[in-house]
Amino acid sequence: SAAMAGPCGAGAPAARWKRHIVRQLRQRDRTQKALFLELVPAYNRLLEKAELLARFSDKLQPEPNDVTPVPHQGPWEEESQSNSDQVPSPDILRVKWQEEKEGLRLVCGEMAYQVVEKTAALGALESELEERQGRLAALEAQVAQLQEERAQHVRQVDVRRARNVAQRAAYEALRLQARLREAALRRLEEEARDLLERLVQRKARAAAERNLRNERRERAKQALVSQELKKAAKRTVSISENPDTSDNGTREKAEMTLTLPAEPEFLESEAGEKLKRPFRSASATSLTLSRCVDVVKGLLHFKKRRGHSIGGPSVQQYQRIPVCVAARLPTWAQDVLDAHLSEVNAVRFGPNSSLLATGGADRLIHLWNVVGGRLEANQTLEGAGSSITSVDFDPSGSQVLAATYSQAAQLWKVGEALSKETLSGHTDKVTAAKFKLTRHQAVTGSRDRTVKEWDLDRAYCSRTINVLSYCNDVVCGDHVIISGHNDQKIRFWDSRVPHCTQVIPVQGRVTSLSLSHDQLHLLSCSRDNTLKVIDLRVSNIRQVFRADGFKCGSDWTKAVFSPDRSFALAGSWDGALYIWDVDTGKLESSLRGPHCNAVAWCCSGNHVVSVDQAGKVVLWH
């Protein structure tokens, strides 16, 4: 090594590889020597034994002249012969030594072969060792790189932990702030609710006081009229005759003069008022002539015009006159039709009880006439972009409104097959579409968690109400919109107030709502397999209807009041119709039929219609 390193001198970075080779050669010598330390001495011992055996064999080999004939042995010589047989003869020993020599040669050959094999194996092991050393170096370099990356990742983790701690602190601060703001919001909502209640109470007191003043003024006017009439009755009437003669002849002229009291001053003062009434006694009714005319017009035309109110401009409002004295309970299926190609989701009677509309998943609305206890096809309305979930007639029965899965509601005019208007603006399926008490306004509910009010004259969304849960059904009153939601709550909205006025929780997802004709009671159906009657005058649940076997089968199962609000009707998942008595709360009857999705009860109270998943429409009588 000194000789190799000498020429390189002091600067020998280039001689490092030489020293490395020398170290590897020495290492190989040591490993090979360790492998042959036992083998070489054993081989040497074998060689020594072989030489020794060869010398012994040479010494024991007899000369040819030494061979003598063996004499004949008699019986007396057998014993001595047996003793002499114990010492082997030289020939036998020579054969044995030859065999041992051959065996030793074979052993030496085998050992030499093993030496060669071991040498080859040693070379293979050395090459494998070099390969593994190279892999080890690569792995060490990779380990160093991974350790560096790990250190970098540890630094990043420390930075992110510090950032996470800061963000968690900021989150806690924001959460505390949100709690404080929620508490402030709840306080403000309570204050707003209190202010609204006070405002309503104050308006009620003001209206009561105004009515009392008007009543007192009316009584004073009536008393004054009565006094003037009494004074006029006490006055006298004078009749005078004035004869008059002329040149042509005698003529008598009788003049009769009736003297009556002058008109009272308060009548002259009322001449410019809106309501002018004739003289009447103090016992006369407070219904004026103009009011009687308005009532008669309302009865004849089924409508009245509402003036300008705080709710908005004047709109044409329809009020249905209830013609049902007592609803007839259905007892049997009078007519069964395969009306649609697939599932039927919606059914609705028109205001005249003779026109029926059904809508389903085949994107069609069929209009039917109820004639003689049978359903006769009237018309098919086309143009819906997807499955129909709800249908409704306007108060006059001249328009049909349908909710669809195509994120819109469609409006048809009865007698026209194609859609008149498309109310688009929702971002998810529209689950309910209902007219208000006028043909010019409608309300829709959707799974996009909004309820929208529509001006149908302009096909314009006049108001959007955002809700926390998606809506399954809506009903409308004078100024109130009631919506049933998937979060097991019924919400009340006033058209004149931007926020929700009341929330009534129920046990189960709300599937349908039905409002009585007097708008005093609400029927809800929910997925907890119950129907609930809510008294809107006190805003609480009045009755809960249950029955063995009744099960609300889907989120679009519909339940309705009878026209006289005496019964509640709903269809179960097994196809049975269940009817409860609203006054007693008991199950009145149950009728077996096909699977029922929705039901409808006509305004006259004579017929009930149910629809199912197989596309059938059943008329019950």
UniProtKB/TrEMBL annotation:
GO biological process, one term: negative stranded viral RNA replication
Compartments (UniProt record): Cytoplasm, Cytosol
All residue ranges annotated as the Autophagy-related protein domain in the record: 20-211
Key words of the record: Coiled coil, Cytoplasm, Protein transport, Repeat, Transport, WD repeat
InterPro entries in the record: ATG16 (IPR045160), Autophagy-rel_prot_16_dom (IPR013923), WD40/YVTN_repeat-like_dom_sf (IPR015943), WD40_PAC1 (IPR020472), WD40_repeat_CS (IPR019775), WD40_repeat_dom_sf (IPR036322), WD40_rpt (IPR001680)
CDD domains listed in its UniProt record: Atg16_CCD, WD40
Region (Disordered): 60-90
Pfam families given in the database record: ATG16, WD40
Any one cellular-component term (Gene Ontology): cytosol
Per-repeat ranges for WD: 337-378, 381-414, 423-464, 561-590
Parts forming coiled coils: 122-209
Protein task: May play a role in regulating epithelial homeostasis in an ATG16L1-dependent manner.
PANTHER family named in the record: AUTOPHAGY PROTEIN 16-LIKE, PROTEIN ATG16L2
Family in the record: Belongs to the WD repeat ATG16 family.
Protein name in the entry: Protein Atg16l2
Organism: Myotis lucifugus
